[in-house]
UniProtKB/TrEMBL annotation:
Molecular function GO terms recorded: cyclin-dependent protein serine/threonine kinase regulator activity
Name the record gives this protein: Cyclin domain protein
Entries under SUPFAM superfamilies matching the protein: Cyclin-like
InterPro entries xrefs: Cyclin-like_sf (IPR036915), Cyclin/Ssn8 (IPR043198)
Superkingdom of this protein's organism: Eukaryota
Length: 299
């Protein structure tokens, strides 16, 4: 990641080179497959966080770290590291750095439960049932092996990220901006804030890796803009976004990216729904690439 001054309001942002030359692509992972796996891994992290009853800001930080792990030639390769293991490591790491620490056993049991589900993209009612997940336990032998794997991947994540675990989120900024624009408090303020948060949470799973390419302030402005248009809230006249240091070009890109996310998810579900699961281990990724190669050679 490109170095930037550490601040509670900024994040290290990915360079164009890092976005276009990942270790996975160097190892021969097709770009569309890489996109599918990173998206699926981010959704896995979200599901695990829900089952572990972690606050959304903790889950969001874990998703950002998970995504950062795969970026650039110095990042992790999907043919060397299991996306599911990296997801577990980021949840475990971020919870350790917060007031909501989770034990290795609870993380391991949660990911084993999610792995037991028949599909990568189950209905929310399937994986948000924390009661079912809490009753799922692995054997003691599996736990001991899995704990070693969890610890090893936690160290790996820290090394790949250069121990940069700071993540600034745009959610609180968006509330401040809505107050500045006099949307809060107002009759429509609650609905606007809720819709804005929905877009900010969805952006965590975006194939454009929006949290790695844009600062929190710009994400907050774009989410407010999109949310206001969707629920019919009148925005101020003029280029109000410039007050919050958001450029017109960045706003335009983010508006399109946030607007296209629903369609992307629908396509992913259709693409992988017939086969059940997105490959989330290095072995499965290698198998998927081999399968594609055989189909191409037979065509």
């Amino acid at each position: 990641m490109a170095p930037e001054p550490l601040s509670i309001l900024t994040n290290p942002l990915a360079t164009v080179e890092q976005l276009t030359s990942s270790s996975s692509q160097f190892d021969g992972v097709p770009a569309d497959l890489e996109t599918s796996i990173i998206h699926a891994g981010a959704r896995l992290t979200q599901a695990a966080g829900i089952l572990l009853q972690l606050p959304q800001d903790i889950i969001a930080q874990a998703i950002v770290l998970f995504t950062r792990f795969w970026i650039g030639s110095e990042g992790g390769s999907l043919l060397e590291h299991n996306a599911s293991d990296v997801s577990a490591a980021t949840i475990y790491l971020v919870s350790k750095l917060s007031a909501y620490q989770k034990s290795p056993r609870s993380v391991i049991n949660t990911y084993a439960y999610l792995a037991s589900l028949p599909a990568t993209f189950p209905l929310p009612s399937t994986y948000i049932d924390a009661q079912d997940a809490s009753t799922y336990h692995v054997s003691e032998g599996t736990y001991l092996t899995s704990r070693q794997t969890l610890n090893a991947n936690e160290s790996l994540v820290l090394r790949i990220l250069g121990f940069q675990t700071h993540v600034a989120l745009p959610h609180a900024l968006s509330i401040t901006y809505m107050q500045t624009l006099s949307f809060i408090p107002s009759p429509s303020g609650t609905a606007l804030a809720a819709r804005t948060f929905e877009h900010l949470n969805a952006a965590l799973l975006s194939p454009q890796l929006l949290y790695l390419t844009h600062p929190p302030a710009t994400l907050a402005v774009a989410a407010i803009y999109v949310a206001a248009r969707e629920i019919g809230t009148k925005l101020p006249e003029g280029e109000w976004w410039e007050v919050f240091d958001c450029e017109r070009e960045d706003l335009g890109f983010l508006v399109l990216a946030m607007g296209s996310f629903e369609g992307f998810v629908r396509e992913e579900v259709q693409k992988w729904g017939r086969r059940g699961k997105v490959p989330l281990t290095a072995k499965q990724v290698a198998g998927e690439i081999e399968k594609r190669t055989m189909l191409e050679e037979g065509a």
